[in-house]
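look at this fold:
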Amino acid sequence: MSEIPMLELSDVHKSYGVGTPVETEVLHGVGLRVDRGEFVALMGPSGSGKSTLLNIIGLLEPMTSGEYLLLGKSVASLNDEELTLRRGDTLGFVFQFHHLLPAFTALENVMMPALIRNGRFSEQDRAQGLQLLDKVGLKAAAQKRPGELSGGMQQRVAVARALVRSSPLVLADEPTGNLDSQSADDVFALLRQFNKDEGTSFLIVTHDARLAERCDRVIELVDGRIA
């Protein structure tokens, strides 16, 4: 029996303004699968529906119809609380703009998911945060605030934050799109390292064909359909 995939979408449609004269369908029967440990790029022109698809996969917005299995379990019937729990247990997020909190140190930003979950930082959270900052090459900058870090360094902090819960799947929306070429290469190599060392699955939206070529597989989305 084959291993249950990390995620599987079948005939997924997404419409906005449902039931109104301006109803617009942006995803037209999308089907895709990401296996455990895969490192997959999602490409497509602007307006093709990539961010909408990533939001659905990230349980940030619902699909209009279709089936979505996350680790073999349907998400369609989950209520808001259950979706939040599933998102917290399974998914990590890295965005083009790192969204670090400027008043907090790099270490505190990495530990932020623990604060949101438990209302406080524990010594275990601190130790794990320092370990992750060490892995991304920023242990020495643990007490610096985002304004004291370069763009590439801030994005590495964001990567550490996404991985602090040991999420089996990380979704990354243009994680290198706001960086110079060298910083983009560094961040990409970091994601690849976690993929290989920890078995973390990645689905990465990118416009950078050079980086996409270094992924296990490329999925192309054109006009709301898998090309």
Notes: The chain has one domain: 7-226. The beta strands are 7-16, 24-34, 39-43, 65-70, 73-74, 91-95, 169-173, 201-205, 217-222, 225-226. The chain has a mean pLDDT of 86.
